[in-house]
Fold this sequence. Notes:
37% of the residues lie in helices and 14% in strands. The protein has 15 helices and 13 strands. The model is unreliable at 384-407 (pLDDT under 50).
Amino acid sequence: MKKICIDARNIRAGMSGLCRYALHIVKGIAAIDKENQYYILRDKRYQKQIVDNPNFKDIYDALLDTGSVQNAFLGSFTVNPLEVDVFHTLNQVVPFGLKAKKIVTTVHDLMWYERPELSFDKPRMAFGANLMAKTSFAYSYKRADVIICISETTKKILQQHYPQYAHKCKVVTHHDLFFYEEGESEKDQQFHDKDLLENLPKDYILSVGNTKPYKNIERLIQAFAQVVPNFPTTKLVILGRMDRREVLQNLANRLNISDKVFFCKQQVDDNDLKLLYKKAKFLAFPSLYEGYGIPPLEAMSLGCPVLGSTIDIVKEATGGKAFYVDPESVEEMALGIQKLLAKPTLLATLSETATEYVNSLKSYNSAEETWKTYGLSLRNGLRNRNSRDDYTDKSNPKHNLVKANNT
């Protein structure tokens, strides 16, 4: 029996992309491996059991998440006493002085290395993030035996900056982190959130994700303002972590479209998120930088068309089945929005091709591909996981994680 430690401190109450990734990997591996011993490093502020396997044990740690300076310098004091055979950090940082026979790290993106100003408004924080990337991240790549890149684009960028580690890289995509639509009861065809039920506009464009600079929501609002005179009944609905809501609200006020921009509260449940996608005209995803981008796949899995940016990763994640615009051109974005709103047949075509694309992705399993990097073996081999139940969150039957095909 081997001992494996997975640093999953990104699992917390706020359902970010990193949190969903960590949940998926832990649950998926728990469905595969009932034999080896797993220690799951957890944030002590979110003490909720994720899996009930007897071979899985949560270790609650006082340090901040995996990308923190504290973890880089002190994380080994938590991990080393466990004497693990495999250590896997789900977000880049391998603590200095860590001891394990095999080390695996997951790289989502290199934004802190290439464009830190897109993560932070404050220059001092951007400088600190860039310093972290050039020291701790570089150390992590050097120490790792396997570097999991979540996309071909991320792999390409990493190899451009660190060609000496190209042989360690393995792509394990996030294709299977989107929703899978099943039959819904009449109850689940209505919003659970009272604010959405009473105030959500009937005709809207949807934006999902945090509101940090790299999400490019300012330009989206500016582009939407140019379209409003031609489509006065259409509104822009913004959902996600409101890191910069005041900034965005002030922008909408200056553009005289504050009554056209609807800010949702930070989190909605899975049922309401599905309905938001299904009722939207389309999802607007004009990011300047991404590691992958889950919202477009969520939208496409529900037949919601996507207006995406022309950056490589968005094209990769959406399989070329979205409508693409230059994320740095407000004018081009406005023309794209107007074209989609003016042509229902184009939206219908995008919806159809999105569904076809998602249906082509249903054989890949990122948890299994991740587990394979550990180099473990099971007495009875991999058990049959054809049942979708293996990848269902039993505590929330509406949130099903499905298998997808690597492209």
